[in-house]
Predict the structure.
Amino acid sequence: MAAMAVALRGLGGRFRWRTQAVAGGVRGAARGAAAAQLGRKVAVVDYVEPSPQGTRWGLGGTCVNVGCIPKKLMHQAALLGGLIQDAPHYGWEVAQPVPHDWRKMAEAVQNHVKSLNWGHRVQLQDRKVKYFNIKASFVDEHTVCGVAKGGKEILLSADHIIIATGGRPRYPTHIEGALEYGITSDDIFWLKESPGKTLVVGASYVALECAGFLTGIGLDTTVMIRSIPLRGFDQQMSSMVIEHMASHGTQFLRGCAPSRVRRLPDGHLQVTWEDCTTGKEDTGTFDTVLWAIGRVPDTRSLNLEKAGVDTSPDTQKILVDSREGTSVPHIYAIGDVVEGRPELTPTAIMAGRLLVQRLFGGSSDLMDYDNVPTTVFTPLEYGCVGLSEEEAVARHGQEHVEVYHAHYKPLEFTVAGRDASQCYVKMVCLREPPQLVLGLHFLGPNAGEVTQGLALGIKCGASYAQVMRTVGIHPTCSEEVVKLRISKRSGLDPTVTGC
Amino acid sequence: MRRRSPPLSPGPCAAGDAPNRRSGHAREELRRRLRGLIERSRVMIFSKSYCPHSTRVKELFSSLGVECNVLELDQVDDGAKVQEVLSEITNQKTVPNVFVNKVHVGGCDQTLQAYQSGLLQKLLQEDSAYDYDLIIVGGGSGGLSCAKEAAILGKKVMVLDFVVPSPQGTSWGLGGTCVNVGCIPKKLMHQAALLGQALCDSRKFGWEYNQQVKHNWETMTKAIQNHISSLNWGYRLSLREKAVAYVNSYGEFVEHHKIKATNKKGQETYYTAAQFVIATGERPRYLGIQGDKEYCITSDDLFSLPYCPGKTLVVGASYVALECAGFLAGFGLDVTVMVRSILLRGFDQEMAEKVGSYMEQHGVKFLRKFIPVMIQQLEKGSPGKLKVLAKSTEGTETIEGVYNTVLLAIGRDSCTRKMGLEKIGVKINEKSGKIPVNDVEQTSVPYVYAVGDVSEGKPELTPVAIQSGKLLARRLFGASLEKIYHTLFWPLEWTVAGRENNTCYAKIICNKLDHDRVIGFHILGPNAGEVTQGFAAAMKCGLTKQLLDDTIGIHPTCGEVGNRRF
């Protein structure tokens, strides 16, 4: 029997490498104990099942290949389009309009992703982590098995096994043509040619982000939403995100659900949809249909039942305790494959790091899933941490919640003559002094950069009073947060004036 | 920050049924509100609507034509509580309870007696002895915020603001340095320079245009000046809305409580006030060498310069100098910075040097350890040509250079010497010209206060100054107790654009003796302001390394380096 201490296993998963990177202490000593550095033998098993459209990618999981990284780079391309329009106001003599070349962008983005894939392999090697590019599944509770390229069967056994296979985009099951003609976020970033006129179906952040950058690079883009946008996020903020997108050229079909996709003789896709309230049918033609209706965990091909790992019957996600342990004591699960966890890269990384520290570093620190900050990279970015206004009211009652808010205008918008109607910030606090901050919501440029530090503040138990005692950095957008004076309850106009 | 206390709402209610939460705190709040009422009103009467004594007092004041602020205790929810607190303040349990110009007069009988003795009339007049409750000299960030706040609290306020034209003749409107010749135009020109970089990047992101993009200084400056004019206007409007008197005149003290205001035409007007705030700020310093005032410009002139400055020498190493040099180079101009000693004095020197090397890599030339000794005009024009003679600070070496523009950014002097402070006895630091103030911003003359850049040791960012002083001492004397975590990072947006790696840098400094409490945060990279703000709030809340490690990053941003990399 192989003397392998740990097998970190991932099948096209999102975070397995990341976990390993943390485990391998790639960033150095400050990151704490690492399984490999602690003298353990570690193997990573990763295999990307091609998407229905045939897209495949390398090591690194969703984030690096078909998620955060290419997404933010394409978002950046779209932002640059906006900046090119701003530039003449600032004295740069650029003839407008400036056309955009998808192939050039896609190639640059894909090259960067490939360099990351390579970097990850090198780092695994440096840490002496064995990497197997095979599709593996459980044989028993200590063994996984897979077939290598030459048809050779590989059996790996380990004392501890961590499942981090992540999720893959969901395809609709009862819509004719969905699978044949539709693509998902697994494909969009690897398209060689421009997607052209695109219909994005879904209201998740993936849907809105993709629609946002497609619009931004000049494509005719429509988003079809059946019910509410950005479920789980603060709904006031969500509707402002949509408002901003609509005012910047993204078209929305609200309260509609697709029923059929067909390829027309000229190659276009004809989509038929139904208005959910009137029941009326309508059609439109597009070059591309992108499904962004959610993600499903990658657990089915793992033969989890052979190991005895329990999953949720509804979601097929793996059930774990607060120590990330599954129903089998030495098998753990982290990341998107786990029931009830936020589907975010940094939470997966941290959960993985803490897990390894508990397993081999003598630590007992648990992952704290409260106050996880995140940012939605729509054209106007939405950063948030803590509770939404709805959730705060549900937990504490309307009379115990005070919401401070402001409509502000980023200085950079003034000269460029940009519309700032949706630049808005609100802080949800308890009403009782010292007014503990429950949530912060920021809509505006660089929302991620603004939110990160404030998340720390909330982690430190910041109160409204403390935030107000923090000196602003002038002139920035983030200073609006420390200048929040107007409460919703007061009914006063929250428009910021002056500099 | 304190909010305005809501008015005591009228409505039928028996005393004592207000919610019984935290009665101590509520009582303190009530006391504060009552004091506010008493201080804000010329005449304040606590009364009961059915009480005949109260009615007599009200009739007396109305016969005198004096407007009163009346609170009917039988018509407010917390009337009984108000009466209790009043008795604590005045030792009088009954109504009416009368205050005139903050002085407690008493009940009905005492008020009538005071009327007969003439004391009441005297009390009523007292407040009108001065034209204003508060005159603020200087309409910049500090002065205006102070003026608006005082006005909200019911005070009669005047702002005197007058911009003495720069030696090059530049002048501007209301709002002070920040709005007119500081933060605002600076950041807009910085943004213009960033856009130049964004244009370069955008080609790599698939945007197609081949022509060499040129920058047009006039277009930019006009757009920025238009924005500033709108801000100037906004400030005037907001002062008007808050009923603050704004006078565009130069203020000079002539005697106690009295100031002379001289307008552009030389007309003099005199105003008196109970209290004064000096918020005159600072103006750029000149070198005091031959040709400097005639031919050099400062940040006072740059942002509204009607022509492109061309090849520019920036003298100084302050943040003003480096920011200006940075954006000028960003427009494609030939820029040289002449530095006497170190960059960004007072900032972390490792970071300061990194800023310098980044600028050098991006085409800004640095002349270290030189100071100019003479400026000569070779050619007139827009811009003209200037010859600069400079000498080494370490030896006898001299160098010569020809530039279109010389921008001085060697520091700022406070504007305190020509405003008659000596006439009323406000002490200034003879060397720096700054005004020493105590913890409550009070000068050596009790009714005169100073805020902003003019006050000594308390720059505009008071709490930052306190905090940074403390941190500096720790760094200087307690270095061994500190741990420093640092990292280089490559912003995602720079990768595809092919911008340099190993440039962006972040570090935190922790105090080992205090649970690894974070006592310093430094970041060099895009959107540094947006990133730093939240970390500042977190440090205010006692951020430790542990908490930093426990905070989830936002991916992919530059802000997450603070959480992921250390």
Q: What stands out?
A: The radius of gyration of chain B is 30 Å. Residues 1-21, 460-481 of chain B have pLDDT under 50 and may be disordered.
